[in-house]
Please model this.
Amino acid sequence: MKTIITLNPENASEEEVARFRVREAARAIVYDRDGKIGILYVSKENYHKLPGGGVKAGEDIDQALRRECLEEIGCNIEVIGEVGQTVEYRKIFGLKQTSFVYLANLVGEKGVPSFTSKESANGFQVEWLTVEETISRLDSDAPLGQEGKLYIVPRDRALLEAVRGR
Model:
């Protein structure tokens, strides 16, 4: 899978990275029948993000992707292609995260997400926007925390640029 972006804004050294915990994640750009994509607004942190998250023990990437989309945007999906992968060296968490990102279509109707208590506390809200509208939102976001500012917004913006015009 092609690497779309590698993020290391805290300049983690190779020695530091060698001690980082490793996490794999699955993310999706999910289109509805109107060509809009499901995006999450994290109101307490003031940024938008694509649906997705960590691969749990015993899951493969596809299972994690489907679970995360159902949990975070309330939708079943059909994978239609690959976008690419992202690599993040998150020094603040001692974490190397590789995200595998796919294009998908909504299957059936839009449902209700089942946010974790942490996601609910962070004010997660589902929005359906065009790719252009989503890029505009990411450009105007002002994340309150380092994670959103240094990692999530730049990562997801790069992913959306990779599919812009497809």
Summary: The CA atoms of residues 40 and 49 lie 5 Å apart. The chain has one domain: 3-163.
